[in-house]
Amino acid sequence: MTQGEPDARILNAAPWPFVPARLKFVLLTHAHLDHCGLLGRLMREGFSGPVYCTRFTAELARINLLNAARLSSDLFTEFDVRRINFVAVDEYSGFEFGRYIELTECLEAAFCLSSHIGGSCSIGIRWRANTTDSREIVFSGDLGQNTGANAPQPLLAPRQPLSMTPNYLVVESTYGSRVRDTAYGSEVARMADLERIVLDAIQRVPSDNAQGSACLVIPCFSIHRVQELLVDLHSLFEVRLKGRILAIRPAFEEPSHIEKTLQEGLRASRIESPQSILTYLSESDRERFHELFKRQEVISPDEKIKTRFVLTDLSAERKEEARKILQRAVRPSSLVRIRVFVDSPMSNRTTAVYQQELRKRDAGHPQRCLYRNPALKDHLGARDEADTDAILSKLFAGKSRRDTPAVEHEFLTYSLTFCNPEETETRIKAKTDALNIILSGSGMADVGPVTKHLERELPNPRSLVMLTGYTPGSSVAGRLRTFSKTGATGPEGVLQLPCKELPDSEIRARVEDVGPYYSGHTDQTGLLDFMFTTSGPAPQGDIATTVFVNHGDNEVRNKLRTAIMARASEKRNVERQVNAVEVPGRDHRWFDLNEDRWLPLEPESPEETRDKLLIQIYMEQRRTNDLLSELLRANRDSRRA
Ligand SMILES: [Zn+2]
Ligand SMILES: [Zn+2]
């Protein structure tokens, strides 16, 4: 699917250069709409075969396509999306990334991790070209930054190098003309920047309720970016800044909470998670505390070891003494409570998919996680992989339906809430001495719940906006990025938000851009490494690869082509050989993969035209029948109701 270009609508509705009903199956690399966005239209126009991909991709693609159908239904409807038959290859017995599986009698496919978004893969296809010869084509899909040598991005296992020497390689080129600053490939640099921004936001929280609240608004893509931000924020609060946050945020904040906890705690003669209280006791109080309470370690239902303190003497006198000590531990004037909200309905759904899939193990090696970065454990401060699972089950809880109540989790240093957009606003207004961090869609900030948060917070000098993704110049996020650099959103000096025009002079919030750290695309160096290095045995001398460069604008593709030719001419020793680089345009023809050549453009014969029209009429009639039976079913259901 073409996105963001002026003629996108026309291109996406253009006739297919094939008959959809004749396709046997589709192989899908990942769930972004520029890759799967026309599956609904394929269904609508007669395709009925399986779509092979990972379970992760299938779940995300379905959410993404249903959302796309709701937003603009001229190409396909929710009905078409529901009929897509996704087949999860990673649920086949004996499945392994990089290993070929048979899809039809003479064709096999292999899925290799590409570390771009959850479930994303490069796909190799091997087929019999004739009785003796088999051939191979690899589609890179979109390639992420994490490699075996350097995997700075938190969530996904490194992308797999290709072991094979394919006859053809179709490669993406989004950043094919750019070599990225190495800082953007560094976890240390990313976390330091994030820490600087979050500490700035904490400083802005007013100590006096009357002065209003501070917000950090983070426009985020629902697929992958929200989840990356959630683990980075968790790492920041619970690992890197834990001591400092606890020092300014005791466990009991609100007077009613203190009273309740003390009374319940003392009634039950024990106090849970007491670390933060202890940091707030004077030395003599702390000594007396240890005399009054006995330390106990218990295993909680989620299998974490928890420390609690149990009152040893239950006399009224001792209880009263304990109460006084604990009350002295609380200093309501210096409290900052950190609350994180995820409130876009689509993010709430996709995050639940990440929770499920990132905990999945390899069927053949039950110890090995299928998708996640081995470094995630340390990033989250987990003891082992089981502990990482436990953290992810809260951190990525999500919420699969709009009409279910908000899902809330308390961590030691912050709270996390998955809710609907209206609820975020209510909760923010209900409490002021807190830092509210709002992760909301859309990433480019043009549509979705984040626009309301921006309308409210951009004029607030206590607030911050942090951009996290691709920000094309004309989008709201793009204009805010320009604002962060130049102090103006553009020549007009007015930011157009959906329900409001905001002059630059009224933007008082601070704007920061951390997008380049999170880019899901590798740069030119990474693309060349993917094309030329092989993890398998040294390539056979007689096979050279033809590369097709796609998925990038023409200037970028041609620059990458030049870089590929330069590297190929070096003929480095153990590298894959490339003998040709094609940059196909929109008017290109079919390429014969058995004969290595572009086919001449032949005018369609009258018979072919007639056949095509007949198939089209048949398919449209069939769809009409499908829609009629859907209507009848809906009628029946509503009568029953
Ligand atoms: Zn993508
Ligand atoms: Zn893409």
Can you characterise this structure?
With 641 residues, the chain is of the alpha/beta class. Helices cover 37% and strands 18% of the residues. The chain is built from 21 helices and 24 strands. A seven-stranded mixed beta sheet has the order 4-5-6-7-8-21-22, with helices on one face. It is globular, with a radius of gyration of 28 Å. Residues 248-256 and 266-274 have low confidence and may be disordered. Bound molecules: zinc ion (2 copies). One zinc ion (ZN) is lined by residues 30, 32, 116, 142.
Task: Give a brief description.
The protein has 21 helices and 24 strands. 37% of the residues lie in helices and 18% in strands.
**Rg from C-alpha positions?**
28 Å
Largest sheet: 7 strands, mixed
Number of strands: 24
Low-confidence stretches: 248-256, 266-274
| Share of helical residues | 25-40%
Which compounds are bound in this model?
zinc ion
Shape: globular
Distance between the amino and carboxyl termini: 39 Å
Number of helices: 21
Mean pLDDT across residues: 88
Q: Within the largest sheet, what's the order of strands?
A: 4-5-6-7-8-21-22
Q: What structural class do helix, strand and pairing data support?
A: alpha/beta
Approximate strand percentage: 15-25%
